[in-house]
Amino acid sequence: MQWRLFLPKEWDTDSQRRQACGMPEDVRHRERWRLALDVLDELAGGA
Q: Can you give the residue ranges of the Transposase IS701-like DDE domain (predicted)?
């Protein structure tokens, strides 16, 4: 099973919210369609 964390765009620059939930600095907003393409690429053996 493939999992990706969707981070809303508003959270990307909200350091107080990110810190409150323990969000690592290297996790940034990505559009849902990009996350889906990442999963498909992995399933196809591209990553």
A: 2-44
- Give the distance, in angstroms, between the CA of residue 44 and the centroid of all CA atoms in the same chain: 20
Domain boundaries, the chain: 9-43
Instruction: Bin 3: left if φ > 0, else alpha if -120 < ψ < 50, else beta.
Output: beta
Residue 11, class by beta-carbon neighbours within 10 Å (0-12 exposed, 13-18 middle, 19+ buried)? middle
**How far is the C-alpha of 38 from the C-alpha of 32, rounded, in Å?**
10
Return per-residue pLDDT of the chain as tens, 47 residues.
567 888 999 999 999 999 999 999 888 999 999 999 988 998 898 65
